[in-house]
Amino acid sequence: MKNEIDGCCGEYCKLTRKQRMYGFAYCFAIGCILGLLGTALVALGNLTAFAICYSLGTIMSLASSLFLWGPWHQIKNMFKETRWIATCVMLASIAMTLVSAIVWKSVALAIIFAFIQFLAFFWYCLSYIPYARAVARNCMGSCMNV
Question: Across the 146 residues of the chain, what is the mean pLDDT of every consecutive 10-residue run?
Fold first, then answer.
């Protein structure tokens, strides 16, 4: 029986499992680097570059899983019952980060939406790890009760 990751892309995927793993790792690393670069750019006062780099970083990190599962499987999983809210919040916050920086030129709103973008992406990623959201909720509950 084939591993699920080996049969994920269907007949159109010509990449080997090792190539898909490298693609995932590189794409995710580029996403993280873009996010860090965006964070540095806001400190330097370049709001538009911040919003673009940070949002592209989130998109690249999200797109990295396309190498593992394939586009159709990824899109179906993004909108499953356990993830659709996090997905919608993440996509909306990406759009609002860009609008806040480019159209409204509001540093405060761009940073707030980038933070929401980070939290939504983090929550989205936790949904792929069994019991991770429950552990995160318990940790936050413990922190709030201190």
Answer: 52 82 96 96 95 97 91 92 96 98 97 97 94 93 83
